[in-house]
Model the fold of this input.
Amino acid sequence: MKRQNSEQPRVRGVTKGMRTLDTVMTKIEDVITITFMIVMTTVILIGVVMRFILKMPNLYGEEISRYSMIIVAFIGISIGVRQKAHLGIDGVVNSLPAKAAKVLRVIASLVAMFAYGLLTFEAYAFVSYSKRMHQLSPAMRLPMWIVYCILLVGFAMSFIRSLMVFWNDFIAKEGEGLLEPEEDIDQNFQ
Done:
């Protein structure tokens, strides 16, 4: 009985920590994706005006919009992991008995977690290699390892999200998990 009482605050602490991390990551993802979508759209519109109306070259526009789109895409992977929008196996799972379906969901979550972890490791190796090569982007002369860091950040955030989703779905007790995306949105607007 003494052991249960000592474990109880730790579980609450983990739940609070996970919810805080979830909230912080969600806000970071939202700010980054919204900001870079606005940047990309604005730069493309400026490019169209410069090219077709002012007849002037837009030297940096294509690169800025390209890198902005890459940032949105790789941060979007993390958003998709949180919303469980990737690796859908529902058709197979729904046709299985309850215990077999749960086992398959656990396996799918572990495979996704492993894949994001491996991609994070490989992205780190790629960024390290790129840093040694001293390659620069063609127009802005930006070191390419900085651009490639978005791979590392996106996959690392996806890995963290997959750990959080696994914890939420298979480890956390009822009522102690993360807020569902719909609940999270409702809370932000109140």
Summary: The longest helix spans residues 2-53. Confidence is low (pLDDT under 50) at residues 1-9.
